[in-house]
Amino acid sequence: IVLRSLSNLEKLNLAGCMQITPEALLEIGNLKKLNDLNLSSTQTNDQVLLEVPPNLVFLNLKNCQRVMGG
């Protein structure tokens, strides 16, 4: 994933994208304008959640088995 070039992105839906690794998802932290993120049914883990942009309003983690409590 090349997310750095999408710096103005406000909404990102990666639901069901199981091929995306947690390492690739760490790039989400560079999307400073992102406010809506859907990571349901992905390989997201707790480390990725530490990197989400601070202005995130909506976060969907449904069926994320690698997230504590998920």
Task: Offer a few descriptive terms.
single chain; 70 residues; alpha/beta; three-stranded parallel β-sheet; 2 helices; 11% helix; 13% strand
Q: Spell out the helices and strands N to C.
A: EHEHE
Topology, number of strands: 3
Strand order across the largest sheet:
1-2-3
Largest sheet: 3 strands, parallel
Category from helices, strands and their pairing: alpha/beta
Counting H and I runs of at least 4 residues, what is the number of helices? 2
Low-confidence stretches: none
| Arithmetic mean of pLDDT | 87
Overall outline: globular
What would you report as the Rg, rounded to the nearest angstrom?
11 Å
Distance between the termini: 24 Å
Percentage of β-strand residues:
5-15%
Secondary structure: helix percent: 10-25%
